[in-house]
Amino acid sequence: MRVRRHCCLLLSVLLLLASWALQAQPAVLRVVGSADPPFRIFAEGGATGLYYDLMNEAVRRLGWRVSYAEVPSARAFKLMEQGEADLMLGPLRTPERELFLSYTRVVLPSEDKAFYTRPDAAPVRSLDDLGGRSIAVHRGKRYGRAFDADTRLQRQEVNDYRAALEMVARGRIDIAVAPEREGDLLLRETGLGLLKQPWLLAGEPPYVVLARASPWLARQAELERTFVAMREDGAWRRILERYGLRAGP
């Protein structure tokens, strides 16, 4: 009888612990970010684009439930800092962001930054040629250490890259800077007749990041292992090829 009581007590404890574990496990991974085709695309059929296609394959393998929310970049970082969102894809690494973001070992394909001007504008061959000219930048985004730290540059923040290009076309600002693929896509869509300057600012590595305040931070190693497996079995390469990219080493 005593043994039976002990077994029942042990079973009750195990069931209680299992219940607590289920309650502690978050139900949905909350992914936030701005719409930046072809990297992050929000459509009726769901979130897609290069970054989100990679993420969708990873969560499919992991069996995680995921939700995607389109929010402005600056707002997305604030949600991550406050623990109201769990994951972002594409941020560059900066010391101030590392205070509230955990940078995983998952490095996404980098993208050079291009500069768009009116056809009659002076050429842009280096950062030195940007001095004294107004430059539209996307609010909340970073473009690399050299560009971000250059105190000579006159930056004007805008809410999206389309607005930046339109401001250049109307003569309200001199230059718009954008990731090359996104800028070229917008240029074709808008037909604004702007010139992409031949000099490009080399892109720095973008990352998959988790909020330090998120309960999903405990699952970071699982996520990293899944992306490693995707590289090893070719899934990573196949997704990149859909966007005209080649997988690195």
What about the largest sheet? 5 strands, mixed
Summarize the helix and strand pattern as letters: HEEEHEHEHEEEHEHEHEEHH
CATH topology of the largest domain: D-Maltodextrin-Binding Protein, domain 2
Class based on secondary structure composition and strand pairing: alpha/beta
| Overall mean confidence score, pLDDT | 91
The CATH class of the largest domain, by name, is Alpha Beta
Low-confidence stretches: 7-23
Strand order, sheet with most strands:
9-8-10-7-11
Output the radius of gyration: 22 Å
Q: Output the number of helix runs.
A: 9
The CATH superfamily of the largest domain turns out to be: Periplasmic binding protein-like II
**Beta-strand proportion:** 15-25%
CATH architecture name of the largest domain: 3-Layer(aba) Sandwich
How far apart are the first and last residues' alpha carbons, in Å? 64 Å
Q: How many extended strands?
A: 12
